[in-house]
Amino acid sequence: MIRGWVLPALLTAAGVLGAAGLLADGNTVAGVVILLAFVGFAMVNSPLVFPASVGSEEARRRSAADGRPVIYWRPGCRYCRSLRLGLGRDTRRAHWVDIWRDPAAAAAVRAIADGNETVPTVVLPDGQARVDPEVEWVRRRL
């Protein structure tokens, strides 16, 4: 869980340090702009952007029951973020599993992606899987 917050924490710290330096020099507006930019970038790279993650087993159980796909992801992944933002409101129509929080999920992704933890990986209820799919491909399956 902590691993997903390392990048956002570093970005926030960098923004605070950069803003403090500018504020110390009397550049209030530039300091505020830098701080807001870094905090905004930290938010976009945080786990907060994604729906609440469930465990791999729970996601598969729910997928079998409701027919929604399972999307394996990890914090800080730009492709996961791109998929998430591309799906917009449809994001909540899938079950999201953070592979850094669930070792079984990481193992499932490795089994699909030739031993690699490549995300996003989407698994449909019928077992069909795709690594780093196009947004439209996922949207059609939702």
UniProtKB/TrEMBL annotation:
Transmembrane segments: 34-54
Coiled-coil positions: none
Tree of life domain: Bacteria
Assigned keywords, A-Z: Membrane, Transmembrane, Transmembrane helix
Residue span(s) of domain Glutaredoxin: 70-124
Protein name (record): Glutaredoxin domain-containing protein
